[in-house]
């Protein structure tokens, strides 16, 4: 008995001692409104002097030796202090309510690193996923237009499924890609943008890799428009970064979401056609008698387009394991007959913690099936619009609606078209869409994984890997009856098929440090390395059909005229990188980053790697000094960065190329290179972030200046060198501008109103092209006074968007338009030196978004505007020349065109001024336009109507509903090419789309 009492006394003593010593308590502090982690919140034990902690980048804290019955005091600037009894808990979830002061939000930055927004020395604009899915598009990037400053977003004229042009802070590179880099969950993706076209005789475009992403899988999107923001990505990020954070599972009960978006589309801006004057019998041009025109409207050729997007998502999880599953379908039919786009997305993501929450494993997989058929942007190839728009007004269009007729002699159906190609590859518009079928199918899978080991409360190690592979199968089937130019001379048709593989493997490893030194100093640092391996290869075969008409099989291709096609490349890069952010009293932050990169594009040169640094300073002035009461928050920031673009592939290792016409190998014609450098962009950025009136009013202002040097040119060299050309590096393109973002939010009883205005302008200047470049081999000096690139001409002190004309009216000695007295007509003449007539670059861009909510009713409207710049229309030139435009009817009705003090015959005038060899300056238009870009009106049913088990929102949605102001004969914001050049040029471009419809969202 005595031993038992002694044991019990010892046990009680041990328990009492343990209670006196306390236990470990950890937890997370988040914002009560949006559940985002709060960085730098103070957590102390009430009544225990010196016992406390500060939350880290994830809002987490750990306290040791907390006694039973203790109370924690949690405080944070701008929030109401909260006392939390510990009880028996060891893991706490603490939410702080805002005290209507500045919230120190957490944003995701380069490499997926979370950082305090007030510590950033550069501009980061964040867009929530809801803003991208309110009015859905087959390519979600089109939904970003007008919502962020400093980013020009142009949707492809190819319509549904087309690529998107995304250029940040101006065009920087003369020869490299100027589109932004896309990053998903911190990892760059391989985005093949096939939306570029090269002019009137270009092949038609297709889509791009980023459009494969399901917008309902996106949690948020961060726009890193400056080099300092993207410096850690090195040579891939000189043009800015779109950083996408995807959804993952959440702790709590199972949540099921279903959404549907159904929209209908029709042409937004169409040319103005005449229906008064017919054609002279047998002529394709409509310069016949008045009143001879039949009732013909080209708009009736277009269908009502449809875009139906369905998505379902499942979210579930515990505190240890969270899962996210989704599936989505996108089924679209374009406004052109027989034009389709379909996509099917399947997504899985799982996050789990184990080994005492020391290890965090995140796995994800996506599988995408996509197919598209007969996409058309502009130009004469595969395009039904030239024949459709120019069709003679005195002829019945019903004649060509039956686009094929049976040829008894050949025992096959052939094209019904008696007008020939007209020198511009015209065919029956319906045959273009049904008789010349171009199909592309893509299968893509993306696998990603990350493992994070929390070594201590201030150090973790992270490793990530992502695999992104696509297989693309394409085919061209041109039926018998197609113009033999397209079938290689065969009357039986032609066939071609190809298969390409796009592969990327990316991996990185990082050590992440987040440590506080007392109450005054903090250090957030990252150091690591990355590996990227990207490859592309294609193989195809095609040619005229030899035996069976419309027998689309490789065995039916003419063995003598058929030809293979093959291509491919592989690019590798290795990099080491690091960043450090030193904070003082949570209001002053110094940030430095560095990256050294080894790229395979530099193989064989003296310069095997390149180094990119950045430095930035930010200070929260409102925390340093006392400001007037109406100023809630004021932050100033400044940064500098060097970021580069990689060299074009294969420059350093010349290789033989195959000439399919001569069927021989061709030796390289350019001289092997010596020391080369990546294209380098050096950028300064400064800005202010301000909040007023208890955070109701916000204003962000950014100024930037960048110089992009080491531009790579191919120039003709002296025959003495033994080569026909060589590559040199020179040039400097400068961009500077400002970005403004103004926001206001207020509650008027049950009515909530939020308005945001973004405005930005950029000024572009070519500081240098190639001036007196000395070649040490030939001892000669080279200069480039100009470069003709697409529809623009690049000259020193000009811009990357300057338009020039090489033709003008013949003029007299006083500069007046000369009228030939023998014909009473004007004359066009070639200029000795091309003359600048404008620039396609805008003076500024504005977006104004308003959102109202009242008792479950939500109204959102976005007005977008572009100011300045010029665009040209070859479509209008051709329509005038053929006499089918309303303008050509108006001048005929007026008795001719007034020139000087007399009248000139309309047909004769347009024969000189219009057409393919006309005077471009007569067809240049102001690109300024203002439109109602998005509109959404929705209602969320009270949950009690659905037994408190579901939430249903129904909305009416629309895009491009109203063009408020526009002087151009087409939509100036549409682009036929997502490349650098051929912007603002309309060559029978597809009209942009006006869409309207409805959406449903159901949550369980």
What can you see in these coordinates?
By secondary structure, the protein is mostly beta strands. The chain is built from ten helices and 55 strands. The strands form 14 sheets. The protein has a 22-stranded antiparallel beta barrel. Strand 5 and strand 6 form a beta hairpin. The model is unreliable at 1-20 (pLDDT under 50).
Overview features:
10 helices; five-stranded mixed β-sheet; globular; 1004 residues; 22-stranded antiparallel barrel
Structural class, judged by helices and strands?
mainly beta
Strand content: over 45%
Query: What radius of gyration results from the CA coordinates?
Result: 32 Å
Question: What is the 3D shape?
Answer: globular
The number of E-state strands comes to 55
Mean pLDDT: 89
In short:
By secondary structure, the chain is mainly β. Helix content is 7%, strand content 51%.
How does the SSE layout of this entry go?
Layout: H1 2-21, E1 23-31, E2 42-45, E3 52-54, E4 60-66, E5 71-75, E6 82-85, E7 91-96, E8 106-108, E9 114-116, E10 124-128, H2 129-133, E11 151-155, E12 164-168, E13 181-184, E14 187-188, E15 218-224, H3 227-230, E16 241-246, E17 252-267, E18 305-317, E19 321-333, E20 340-354, E21 359-373, H4 385-390, H5 398-401, E22 404-407, E23 412-415, H6 429-434, E24 436-454, E25 459-479, E26 493-517, E27 521-544, E28 563-584, E29 588-599, E30 609-620, H7 621-624, E31 631-645, E32 657-659, E33 664-666, E34 679-692, E35 697-716, E36 725-748, E37 751-768, E38 770-775, E39 780-784, E40 786-789, E41 792-795, E42 802-809, E43 819-820, E44 825-826, E45 828-839, E46 844-854, E47 857-867, E48 870-873, H8 874-882, H9 886-893, E49 897-899, E50 902-904, H10 906-913, E51 924-926, E52 929-940, E53 951-966, E54 985-986, E55 993-1003
Parallel strand pairs: 1-7, 13-16, 48-54
Antiparallel strand pairs: 1-4, 2-3, 2-5, 5-6, 8-9, 10-15, 11-12, 13-14, 15-16, 17-18, 17-55, 18-19, 19-20, 20-21, 21-24, 22-23, 24-25, 25-26, 26-27, 27-28, 28-29, 29-30, 30-31, 31-34, 32-33, 34-35, 35-36, 36-37, 37-46, 38-39, 40-41, 42-45, 43-44, 46-47, 47-52, 48-51, 49-50, 52-53, 53-55
